Amino acid sequence: MNAWKNAVDKVPSKSSDVTRPESNRPDLATTLHMAEGFALVMLCHIRLALRKLAVNILKEVKQLFKLLGALREDLVSEASK
Question: Which domain holds residue 54?
């Protein structure tokens, strides 16, 4: 998760779109949705430690979605200038 945050913090060039997938890998939104689904399944686990980990994953995914939304708005505003 920290690697994803660091990747989002680095501003991509104007010609690239963080939501557009490259030909050989899924887009970031799909990957985050899969991580979110995995965390939701982990919430059903009997062990407390895994449920706590699932809550932390959900918090991280939520923050990344917020960062990506802000980044997307910045890219759109820069493109319109």
Answer: 28-81
Cα separation, 51 vs 44, whole angstroms: 7
Q: How many domains does the chain have?
A: 1
- Gap between the terminal Cα atoms of the chain: 33
Q: 49-57 long-range CB contacts below 8 Å, 24 or more apart?
A: 57/1
| 16 belongs to a structural domain | no
| pLDDT tens, residue by residue, 9-68 | 665 555 455 555 556 666 787 888 889 999 999 999 999 999 999 999 999 999 988 888
For residues 35 and 57, the answer to whether their CB atoms sit within 8 Å is yes
Q: How far is CA 29 from the centre of its chain?
A: 6
